[in-house]
Amino acid sequence: MKLSDIQYGEMAKEASAPSKSLLNIPKAFLIGGLICLCGQGILNIFTAVGLNKEAAGSFTSITLVLFSALLTAVGLYPKVAKHGGAGTLVPITGFANAVVSPAIEFRTEGWVLGVGTKIFAIAGPVILYGTAASIAYGIIYWAVKTIAG
User: Fold this and answer.
1) Three-state DSSP class for 71?
2) Domain range summary for the chain, segments of one domain joined by +
3) How far apart are CA 149 and CA 145, in angstroms?
4) Tens digit of pLDDT for each residue in 21-53?
5) Hey, how many other C-beta atoms are within 10 angstroms of the C-beta on 145?
6) How many CA atoms lie within 13 A of 10 on its CB side?
7) Pick from 28, 92, 83: nearest CA to 62
């Protein structure tokens, strides 16, 4: 069956549900804000027990990654993401979810061919291009600083 561009466009329009922006945007804002609020609370706890600001920040990041990985493993993070949408993409928790999700999905195929192969399926390109971009920006920064003086 060959479809024209117009027919394909009509089929795609029928198949895709309209976005409920008036509901989705506030939910994303609230969920993302709650994640950030939890992070701030964790940071406050670590500074209250005597860690300096830099160490407390590092331990907060580690704790947020651990919590989001655990919530993904038990199936709660996807449920929150269903309602929170972009609000759950707060960088560190969303990244942990992106790493853990494929690993959990393919765990039945074993540690090497399942988890080991798929763990960075989604996050791999982010790591690759993020690292490459940071190297390129560093070289440009170094060149500009060297030339400027």
Assistant:
1) helix
2) 23-148
3) 6
4) 888 889 999 999 999 999 999 999 999 999 999
5) 9
6) 5
7) 92
